[in-house]
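Forum: Protein Structure Q&A
Topic: Joint prediction for protein chains with partners

I've read a bunch of threads here and the consensus seems to be that you should model interacting components together rather than docking separate models afterwards. I'd like to see that in practice. Below is the full input, 752 residues plus whatever partners are listed. Could one of the regulars post the assembled result?
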Amino acid sequence: MNLHEGKPFTSLGPRIRKSPFFNATRKAGYHTYTIYNHMYMPIVYETPEIDYWNLINNVTIWDVAAERQVEMAGPDAFRLAQYICPRDLSKCQLGQGMYVPLVTEEGGMINDPVLLRLAEDRFWLSLADSDILLWAKGIAMAKGWDVNVFEPDASPLAIQGPKAKPLVANLFGDWVLALKYFWFKETELDGIPMVLARSGWSKQGGFELYLTDRTRGEELWNKIMEAGKPYHIAPAAPNQIERIESGLLSHGSDMDMRDNPFEVNLGKFIDTETEADYIGKSALQKIKAEGIKRKQVGLKWNDQSPSNENHLAVFKGDKRVGKLTSSAYSPRLKHSIALALLDIDQTEIGNVVSIESANGRLDAEVSKIPFLKASI
Amino acid sequence: MNLHEGKPFTSLGPRIRKSPFFNATRKAGYHTYTIYNHMYMPIVYETPEIDYWNLINNVTIWDVAAERQVEMAGPDAFRLAQYICPRDLSKCQLGQGMYVPLVTEEGGMINDPVLLRLAEDRFWLSLADSDILLWAKGIAMAKGWDVNVFEPDASPLAIQGPKAKPLVANLFGDWVLALKYFWFKETELDGIPMVLARSGWSKQGGFELYLTDRTRGEELWNKIMEAGKPYHIAPAAPNQIERIESGLLSHGSDMDMRDNPFEVNLGKFIDTETEADYIGKSALQKIKAEGIKRKQVGLKWNDQSPSNENHLAVFKGDKRVGKLTSSAYSPRLKHSIALALLDIDQTEIGNVVSIESANGRLDAEVSKIPFLKASI
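Posted by a regular:
Agreed with the consensus. Here's the joint model:
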């Protein structure tokens, strides 16, 4: 497979930000990148399949500094955080993270960050790709609230895979093994400051190190690569194959402002009964009460995956009933898989629909997600 | 020159949006693209130099659909537009556009769109690369104003170069020649609806056609390419060489939230004396009264341009006095040029400073901007 074939080039200019790990990733030989939150983010090193097996079998190191943070700090920080998050944040303890679908007043999804509570009055949102900094800052200003909203010097580096635990325990101590999922602690490695969280955009287990001194990115990367040698560590990146197998969503691909959380199986993260006031509450209550008209499902089929370049249309007979939102060939399942948004009457497990690909229609079967269980 | 050398690849996936002209640009053979407002945008076809000469000598067609629009419509549309724009919008007539630096409460630049007034109570912001949709929508909601804020189906296609006028007059009629700079009119071409504006991110003259039916992008592109043959039309893109020569700014590269409009020579677009209330007014009044501490200047030097990958540091002797924000080799001037942000005491025309490049220091002279006069 010639990975270069048909792929456009891009330029490296000063308009797009470089991560603190940028030089390290370049030396490590990344092949393909995207732009995410106005920052370059490597997404392929060898091939998506080789990177995938490194993640599944061993341990991988990912430059995900492009998951930028929005910090909310000050007397009204809790008030602002609660207002923009549709979950009851009084339940969020210090040192705890929570996955929060952010929505507009109409209930449309604008991001799906992890919220980290660093202090009673200090929060981070670890973002998918949209300028929530502008959203949060504009709202705080318009409300006249006393809260400082800014992007802190905090750049996540993910360590993911089944051998992440022994590697990170080796570097930081056995306390990391006791961290609950999404919990975190401020720590350091040979004086390099960071927030260490048990989290990451895979279901193979692992940690995210939020480096809080951007001048020390290459140093941190190199220390981890060195310590990871016995575990066969390899540079990699958020992997499309594994994350679709695991049912992890990518904002912009699997949902956007036109979709609500209930449609993409995120209803369990929405507190419609809480007393707390938040943006979109009445819209989400109404959607929940009335029921959704379309829903995200898994699709599987035996042929090779069609091009994942666009949102391919899905049909039932002559009727268009939805669209693919992301797809890949699963090397472990040995068939193709996709996430799709379908009309609600087409979402029963086992239902067969057709995907409209460049090479004609492909029959696919509605399947449960995740396609594969987490190894965390 | 091997354009591929050292350049990373990127992938084409469903996460990033495709412009209505995407298929047309691919068939036209774009070589390099970037991601802008969550959308692919071609930036090089042949080489930056060949594209440049096509723009300087003839006429070029650019897919700039990634300059997405934010529409503000409804009873409080003027109120919202005025609140987020630091210019007196009562002066903006129907059919008129205005360049507006958008700022935070602290006066930091978050975008520099063109505002188009489509009706008394209907505006578009034609954006640089940041989610002003979230900014404007969040503020309107927090204020409780009665205004609909959304991204309309409007995708600019630019026609730029000295032969843009005869070409566009040929297609649309001689009325286009009477359009004043930044003014626009709703029109159509063989039933393809659009807003036609005299504008564009070059100083070689031309128009932007805001296509308002995204299903007809390829059709519009092809009609213009066909009509442009006698004028030697070529596909091209926002050109870094020409725009630096002309002193046009790129948000993210030449300024960002850490910079105020006065520092980057945009003070003439700020109305600090108006009665209108807008975000950042008191901060901008204070900055204007106290004077700025650093300022954007041009730099020129005889060697080849160093890598434009990063914001290179600028020194005066041992003292760091600023940074390059964008640079290129000018084929018309036959020397290198750059935009730079320097400490105010280093900004006198003729002052010699040093640029820290990978190959050592380069002496450069402070120069007026624009480097070359507009041909509009």
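Chain A has a mean pLDDT of 95.
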